[in-house]
Amino acid sequence: MAEKINLIKTIMDGMDYNLHEIEKQLPPDLGGMWDPSAMQRIFSGFWHKAYNAQQNGDPIAWVNFGIPTELFYAMDIVPIPVDHISANASVFGLTYKYNDLAKEKIADYLCSNNTLLLGALLAGDIDPPAIMVHPANPCDSNLATYPTYSKYFDYPYFMIDMPYITTEKSLDYVANEYKKLIVLLEEKTGRKLDLDKLRQTMEYSNKTHENVLKLNKLREAVPAPYSSWEVMGECGLLLSCVGTPELAEYFEKRHSHIKAMVDNGVGHMAPEQEKIRVVWIYGAPVFDYGIYDWSEKEHGAVLVSQMNNNFINEPVEDISNLDSILRGLAQKLVLMPMTRECGGPWENYLDSSLDLIKRYKADAAIFGGNHACKSNWAIAKLVKDKIQEEVGIPVCNIELDLFDDRVASSDTIKAQMSQYFDLMLTRKERR
What we know:
Strand content: 5-15%
Helix content: 55-70%
Distance between the termini: 59 Å
Number of strands: 8
Order of helices and strands: HHEHEHHHEHEHHHHEHEHHHEHEH
Number of helices: 17
CATH class of the largest domain: Alpha Beta
Largest sheet: 4 strands, parallel
Oligomer: single chain
Radius of gyration: 21 Å
């Protein structure tokens, strides 16, 4: 029997260690340069909040990647994306322990994002939350597992129902779902919603999204101003910390720094080093972030965007009253990355993939087909053919598991990427 641990503390300690390692390499005076530890500092702070809430008995909500976090921060409830629990369990070497435990109970074709969470619960390494909240779209594996977990481990659960097609009427419907959620949150956590605090939270959210939209535009620049790691990492910040002053300040400073880089023609890599601009249109692996540094160093292939970091949410214009705020959050929810692309007709996914490739001037597109994502595998060939037809880029389809390297190891993924990048570079040089 594996030794029982406190998973939240383990993640917090790991984040602190990573922050310490980054800070050790910084010069005493940055001289106005960008602080490379800024992102990691917010991650560490977030997990300290989660750990302190756990220790103090304060409410923690588990949320899916499609759930905006503002409402929870306004109610002093720490929102932990379950996807972050799974991702960090994977990064810190707990995948086999949790997945093997979970697969004694449920089918092995389910997503590791779901099985890792179950394994952590079965191991007693994480306590059930005060409540779990996730949307109806886009993942069938979520809907097949999370309600069952809540019954088995006896914690409250709420699904925000969402119509298949987004219209003005459907947004009203989702906003009404938020009203039901507020009632349940107040009942289960004892925290009452304060409208003034919600407005303040939305001000931080709006400030964040204003700068994210500006950064989206700046990231189209050649050479790319972001590193591959930064494209991957900021996704995590936007899933867990929107509505906090720390994140609003981070993106304000980030925008100022990246604008200066672009204005001066400076990229993360020198123009001659940036040989291939890559978008992951689905399923970029999490278990080994070294893959992205490797692709830059070995192939000059920089990640310019990926589906899960494609945040296009506009600020909520009217935050004067609860109804307008909830309508704005409903609009945001249906536009969250992956929910927007994969929660409706297949054209939603195709159009978004084409937009990423065109907007970020990509030379290469990779479909990381998570083995459990049956709906997206069902359209993978259609999407591949349409992208080839419209922009002339052959898509590289790789079957993998985002969190478990036993489906496809780092070496296996790198070998497929190497072959693909060599092909794409040859094509590019022939033009």
